[in-house]
Amino acid sequence: MTITKKLWFSFGLLISVLLVSMLISSWQIQQIYQKVLRVVEVENPLEEAILEIKINVGESSGAVLHYVWDSEARKIEKIHDAKADFEKFTAKFDKLAETDEEKRLGQEVVQLYEEFKRLGDEIIMLVDKRHATLLLFREDVSEIDELIDEEFQAAIDRNAPDAIKKLEAALDMEINIDEAFVAIEAYIAQRDSALVQEILNEKASFNKRVSMYRETSLSADEERWLNQISNEFEEAMKSSDELVADTDKLHEFLGQFEATLDKIDIILDDIQFLIHTETIKAVEETKAATTTTAILLIVLGGGGISIGLISAWTITRGVIKPVTHLVRETEIIGRGMLNHRVIIQTNDEFGKLAAAFNQMLENIEQAEDKIRKLNDELEQRVVDRTRKLSALYEVTTIASESLDLRTTLERSLERVLETMRGNVGAIHLLDKTQKILHLTTQRNLPSDIVPQIDPIASWVIKHGEPLLVSDMATDSRIIHLNNFHTYVGVPMRARGRTLGVLSVFGETKQQLNMEEVTLLTSIADQVGVAVENARLRQRAEQAAVMEERERLARELHDSVTQSLYSLTLFAEAGTELIKTRDLDSARHNFVRMGETAQHALKEMRLLVYELRPLDLQQEGLVGALHRRLSAVEGRVNVKTQLVAEEFIELPTFVEKQLYRIAQEALNNILKHATASSVTVYLRVKEEQVELELVDDGSGFDPDVAGDTGGIGLISMRERAEKVGGSLTIHSTPGEGTRVTVSMSKNFEVKQEIF
Fold first, then answer.
1. pLDDT band at residue 679, thresholds of 50, 70 and 90?
2. What is the spatial distance between Cα 322 and Cα 320, in angstroms, rounded to a whole number?
3. CA distances (Å), 106 to each of 262, 427, 521, in order?
4. Which residue in 125, 284, 516, 645 has a CA-CA distance of 20 to 30 Å to 535?
């Protein structure tokens, strides 16, 4: 039964008095109904529109940020869809908005969204531009490396006196351009200002190596190729400058993008506050109207007290009680308890209002749940992205460290498995012929299936592309391994060549997306750069070994071979003198033979000692000096003494330079000074470390020796300068020599010098 029928039934006996009461009550109830209905039909849909706009803006911003990371084309489609949905939701809001403040804030949201869209389009265009520039930069780097490998080294005359210097310069140029490439990609990933300085350092070092190469004797082909490489390097550096600038500009746009997004959220929150205020206002008006209705009904009912009691009971039960209950329930909801529900068990207008209220609350609760889930998802994506960027940066750092190749591969594989949440993986490398694939590093692979994974890695090498297998039991491209369910393998590349394969195995179902495969590809390329750098270092070491062998050959020819030839001449001359009975001359010849043999023995001991490996880390500088004096000077009847402080802690590089200076000075004493005693001092004076060698030999004039440009003295001075020290020589003909090296105790080694 409706409220109107209840009133007609209750007031039927008091038509003249209660007719007015019924009409007024009906009108008041309709007002209450309209106010509550406005909340249901206007304020609720309006708030739903705001929530939909919030969700839409969040999805749009998420798509733009994902595109910055992986540049997937489907993210563009999602952005366009979000823009179309935004226009639909704003049209819905404009239709429902009633107050001037709501309309004004709605216009501000639309204006800010236009700026939001513009910044998003700018970011997408800048990401595409940076991607294209990065491809050009990689092509330039690859061209430079190929020119150096295929043309420079092919053009160098290996028998020329400066061939080693050319090879070293060419290898250093390759290392410089590869290190610059690593720094550029690391800057794109983490935007560290120190990496910009590293790029500039590699550029300066590259130009320095080109200048060193130009100082050698150049053929026409070398001159032309050198100019071509310089031009290609300038083009590559222009691309690198563009990449740095684009990355900085992208960072600036992202900041503006996030600031605009924050402004939109603030305005949407203000609109929600207005809507909430209007809802509270409607509740208060409903409460006031209910109170007025109750008072009016009591006053009008006083005329017919007897029947009024019955009417009051009917009205209280059918009207006032439901209205009061409804007001109390709306006050609870107004305090933010959206999980509360209005319970009115009638089939009249109040029952419908209660059902409408409950439906509104369910819609709002569902929308807020959706927003919370979206926020949780975005936060999780940010965490995953940070974890993956951290993994890429750590692998880049490992690749740039001067570690042996096996250590680099093992640490890189361990970091990859942590990132991919796996515990089984392997790295295969191609040999120098680029034909045979070897398993170099693996983790947790059962020994019985190690031979079975080679064909899988060979598939990746053959096709030159990543291989992602979600179910190995059903994929026809690879052999089936019962131990594993999933597999992902990516090629490792450097300078345009495939060097090997990085593989990760999964024992259970694990769905990998393209973002993770892209990350794994980037990590594999960094490991490829590390492999290539290790091979370049090996070639440089081989070149150094070749140079050392040539030096020893020259020493043998210039000293020992000549001495042995002199011995032969003395022996032949002595034999002839004995035949002629000239014993005095023969005796003199044999004395000369003894002196020459003694000199050859000294030279041979020096050369043999230099062939022995030097381990300063194990023996220390004092131990190495003691071993040298005992093994060489002590065996050719030269009295030696080492005066040193036992605990002098110096970097290995500094100890190496000081030892080489002492070695050169001792060699000069044996070869030229004819000394009978040598004393070596190693001491600390305040903050200075001092190495001093004193002999009682024939001495020499340092000014004359400096003018003749002796290689040994020049080498000693250069080594002293490398450790920030100075070399002084005090010597007088016939009075012996004093060689002193002085340097700061706190000298820091900036880089290892080859």
1. very high
2. 6
3. 15, 57, 45
4. 516
For residue 2, give every residue at least 6 positions away whose Cβ sits within 8 Å of its Cβ, in sequence order, or none: 348, 349
Give the H/E segment covering residue 496: none
* CB-count exposure of residue 372 (10 Å: 0-12, 13-18, 19+): exposed
Distance, CA of 574 to CA of 688 (rounded, Å): 56
Question: For position 449, what pLDDT does the model report?
Answer: 80
Would you list the DSSP string of 369-403? HHHHHHHHHHHHHHHHHHHHHHHHHHHHHHHHS--
Amino acid letter for position 271: I
Both tokens of 715, joined, read: 């080498």
- Whether residue 332 contacts residue 283, with contact meaning beta carbons closer than 8 Å, is answered with no
Question: Could you report the per-residue pLDDT of 16-64, keeping only the tens digit for each?
Answer: 665 766 677 666 666 665 655 555 555 566 667 677 777 767 777 777 7
- Residue 686 DSSP SS3: coil
Query: Taking CA 139 as the corner, what is the angle to CA 134 and CA 140, rounded to the nearest 5 degrees?
Result: 95
Q: How many CB atoms lie within 10 A of CB 70?
A: 16
Residue 565 has pLDDT above 70, yes or no: no
Instruction: Return the SS3 of 725.
Output: coil
Residue type, 333: I
pTM over 0.70: no
Cα–Cα distance, 576 to 568 (Å, whole number): 13
Residue 409 tokens read as: 């591969």
| Token duo for residue 41 | 């039909």
Share of the chain above pLDDT 70, in %: 68
- Distance, CA of 135 to CA of 510 (rounded, Å): 32
